[in-house]
């Protein structure tokens, strides 16, 4: 069976995608720092749970090694781990900023690097979670800046993979009602399953079709 690896898989978009990928017939590898939540989801869908701090290169290498030991291949790698913070350059603790940049940007880059040989071998599919905030700047938002970096990485990775048979898709959600937010959005937001369907749409296309970007907003989101 094809193998679908997901970082940031314990909740939200990652968990929803894991469930949909398992239902579509993938062996699913779940990576996150929350071991108990991760293992519960793995038990539910029959996946493999691997604790991974995406900011640590050794953890990323171990994640790929565990996946290859268990299944022998990686067909889809979804670099989904990330988190946000308060807007305003005077609002957030600098240590939170540091962790955000390391997780959202450096961690994403490490996932690209760690999974590259296996994806080339399988002629697989790389997906990155950016955001609507990665297409337009938000006032005082370092999170927005990190997602601009992920958007750029999506195109940089596509160019790097050119002629290898590997496809690259950037997923750019608007407001999603997930544990990402301390307070639920005030509009009818997207559900995590809505974004997961977009992910599965991209990976379900025939090999000669590469859906490079999916920008998905709630109907009521004005910007």
Tell me the CATH topology.
Answer: Rossmann fold
Would you identify the regions where 5 or more consecutive residues have pLDDT less than 50?
Answer: none
CATH class value: Alpha Beta
* Helix proportion: 40-55%
Q: Total helix count?
A: 6
Nearest-integer average pLDDT: 93
Strand content: 15-25%
Q: How many whole angstroms does the radius of gyration measure?
A: 16 Å
Oligomer state equals single chain
Tell me about this structure.
The structure is a single chain. This protein is α/β, with parallel strands linked by helices and 223 residues long. The chain has one domain: 3-Layer(aba) Sandwich (Rossmann fold), CATH 3.40.50. 44% of the residues lie in helices and 16% in strands. The chain is built from six helices and seven strands. The protein has a seven-stranded parallel sheet with strand order 3-2-1-4-5-6-7, sandwiched between helices. Helix 2 links the parallel strand 2 and strand 3. Helix 1 crosses helix 6, helix 3 runs parallel beside helix 4 and helix 4 runs parallel beside helix 5.
């Amino acid at each position: 069976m094809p193998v679908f690896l997901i970082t940031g898989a314990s909740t939200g978009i990652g968990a929803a995608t894991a469930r949909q990928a398992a239902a579509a017939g993938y062996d699913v590898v779940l990576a996150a720092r929350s071991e108990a939540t991760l293992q519960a989801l793995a038990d539910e869908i029959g996946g493999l749970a691997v604790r991974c701090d995406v900011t640590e290169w050794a953890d990323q290498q171990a994640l790929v090694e565990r996946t290859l030991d268990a299944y022998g291949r990686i067909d889809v790698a979804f670099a989904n781990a990330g988190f946000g913070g308060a807007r305003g350059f005077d609002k957030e603790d600098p240590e939170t900023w540091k962790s955000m940049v390391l997780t959202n940007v450096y961690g994403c880059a490490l996932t690209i690097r760690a999974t590259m040989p296996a994806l080339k071998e399988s002629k697989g599919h790389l997906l990155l979670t950016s955001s609507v905030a990665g297409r337009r700047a938000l006032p005082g938002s370092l999170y927005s800046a990190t997602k601009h970096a992920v958007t750029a990485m999506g195109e940089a990775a596509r160019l790097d993979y050119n002629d290898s048979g590997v496809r690259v898709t950037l997923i750019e959600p608007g407001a999603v009602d997930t544990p990402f937010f301390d307070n639920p959005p005030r509009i009818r937001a997207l559900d995590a399953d809505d974004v997961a369907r977009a992910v599965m749409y991209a990976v379900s296309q025939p090999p000669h079709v590469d859906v490079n970007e999916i920008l998905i907003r709630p109907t009521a989101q004005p910007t």
